[in-house]
Design a protein that fits this description.
By secondary structure, this protein is mainly α. It is about 65% helix and about 5% strand.
């Protein structure tokens, strides 16, 4: 109710799209503001998701006797503690990633960050033996939904004679997080730190010559962007109730980078537009891929066909709008003269 008249399926799609907006806003700090190409951003998403899953599920109590003796019912950590911990741990992971990459640029930086993202995924996939921490490829289930005071997001809420389903509650929560993140990003862009990041993006040598500590600023960009990924991962784990390494593949990182490039690097409205389009477009194209599959007598797989349509749509848009759908205004250039 109050969200979409087409049923809860579309509300769920919109809620997941908001999570991608949150991820895109975080990566925009690294790529759009500081100009550091990061292809391992999904690693921070995974860190936040697995932290929430471990702290809000019975997995640790089931696999460690000493933990079961201390917490016989499992560790069901409240959300006000998990969210800061997810942001802190992901931010620390961002600094750890940024530290060895300070002298790298362009393609070399992209390759190193790509490797970092894959290392995290492989670790999550193999940390089952000899000590079962992540449950390997089977993933973690029975994850508690978010609880804020008397409101349990895993159950429908009765309020003023109206029933709000669980997915609707999550939608409004994600929307509130996105609004708060947009305000933070706007403040960052107008701050001294934001202007310093943009100076590094435009010309790092000139920025260093002007006295900017580029090393600390780069680490800050990696850490700040990673905190958004950690919070998004925690929200994803509570929303899905299940996490596994398959949710944090390289394609997720590539898709998030594509969102901010498609929308407009460094421009918050463009980033939001790009994230919403690429998150919702595959679901919308389900209604196109089905009839096309029937026309070919089932010779084409619907999932592959949907990916093909998304790729063609992205190529078309980028050829027509190379700076993105909603690029940032170009500062420092003279206004075009109108000839009479």
């Amino acid at each position: 109710m109050f969200v979409a008249p087409f049923g809860q399926g579309w509300v769920r799609i919109m809620a997941l799209a908001l999570l991608y907006v949150l991820l895109a806003l975080g990566l925009n700090i690294v790529v759009g503001y500081a100009g550091l190409l990061d292809l391992g951003y999904v690693a921070f998403y995974a860190v936040g998701a697995y932290l929430y899953a471990l702290m809000a599920s019975p997995h640790l109590a089931e696999n460690f006797e000493w933990f079961r003796n201390t917490f016989p019912n499992g560790l069901h950590t409240p959300i006000w503690l998990v969210i800061p911990l997810a942001a802190l741990l992901a931010g620390l992971a961002g600094v750890i990633l940024g530290a060895p990459t300070l002298k790298l640029r362009g393609d070399y930086l992209a390759i190193v960050t790509l490797g970092f993202g894959e290392i995290i995924r492989v670790f999550m996939n193999n940390m089952e033996h000899p000590i079962n921490i992540t449950n390997g490829p089977r993933g973690l289930s029975q994850i508690d939904p978010i609880k804020i005071g008397p409101v349990d997001f895993g159950k429908p809420l009765e309020l003023f004679g109206h029933t709000f389903p669980s997915v609707t509650l999550y939608y409004w929560l994600f929307l509130a997080l996105v609004v708060g993140s947009v305000l933070i990003c706007l403040r960052l862009a107008d701050s001294r730190i934001g202007r310093a990041w943009m100076a590094i993006r435009e010309d790092e040598i000139a920025a260093k010559a002007m006295g900017l500590n580029t090393r600390n600023l780069k680490l800050l960009a990696f850490g700040m962007g990673a905190t958004f990924g950690g919070v998004s991962g925690a929200m994803f784990a509570s929303f899905q109730g299940f996490v596994s390494p398959e949710s944090f593949t390289l394609m997720e990182s590539v898709m998030i980078v594509a969102m901010i490039v498609l929308g407009g690097l460094g421009h918050i409205p463009g980033v939001i537009l790009g994230a919403l389009l690429l998150a919702a477009l595959p679901e919308v194209l389900r209604y196109v891929a089905g009839p096309l599959q029937q026309m070919t007598d089932g010779r084409l797989d619907a999932a592959i066909l949907r990916q093909l349509l998304v790729a063609l749509a992205m190529i078309t848009i980028m050829l027509m709008r190379p700076r993105g759908l909603w690029p940032s205004p170009e500062h420092g250039k003279a206004a075009p003269q109108v000839t009479k």
